[in-house]
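Example S7 (structure tokens).
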């Protein structure tokens, strides 16, 4: 847990709410968890790599 607490000093965490899940359900990505990450990043205006 100390590692995660320390990590939070350097990163932001994108929230996952109902609309993010809805958007992920309509994603072309095959992996649902990846689709959630992509949707959350888009919502927070985090550029994709």
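Recovered sequence:
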């Amino acid at each position: 847990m100390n590692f995660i607490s320390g990590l939070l000093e350097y990163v932001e965490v994108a929230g996952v709410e109902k609309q993010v899940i809805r958007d992920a359900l309509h994603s072309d990505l095959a992996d649902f968890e990846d689709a959630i990450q992509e949707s959350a990043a888009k919502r927070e205006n985090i550029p994709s790599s």
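Notes on this example. The mean pLDDT is 94.
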